[in-house]
Amino acid sequence: MRIAVSGTHRTGKSTLVDELSDLLPAYVTVDEPYHQLEEEGHAFAETPSVEDFEAQLARSIANLDEAPADVVFDRCPVDFIGYLLAHEDRDAFDIEAWLPRVRGALRKLDLIVLVGIERPDRISLSASGDEEPRLAVDEALKELLLEDPHAFEVEVLEVEGSPRARAKQVLAHLADASR
């Protein structure tokens, strides 16, 4: 199966990917596009620009095109649409131009695991003033994935709890899907 773990920053996505990697040893994991691009020398602005998020969106689409059958992705194209829709320069982002490519890429996924912000928040936050954008992205992702206004038509599993509990929810979902 092709699984993507999605959510705003600092919700435990990468931790869940690590848990799933331990529990699904036959699966390949794909690091998030930000880290891939950074390793290749992409210089991100301190506060990522629309162009930075579009570069990550394009890489996420390419990752889906190139990946093997049994894989867990840290992020998917919808993550970057969420960030772009919550961005202060969102008017510079033409979602309609991206939708055909995003829909095509998402058809290659079997499941998106949505890791949202929980109440109380499981991740301790710094006093960086980052909370408002983080909440805006979380809200955008929940709308994009759970309400599906752009007809992405991909199965979504929203998880909560400790990292191990989240991983068990994914494994239970996979077991149910294989029946």
UniProtKB/TrEMBL annotation:
InterPro entries found in the cross-reference section: NadR/Ttd14_AAA_dom, P-loop_NTPase
A Pfam family that the UniProt record links to this protein: AAA_28
Domain NadR/Ttd14 AAA: 2-163
Protein name, as recorded: AAA family ATPase
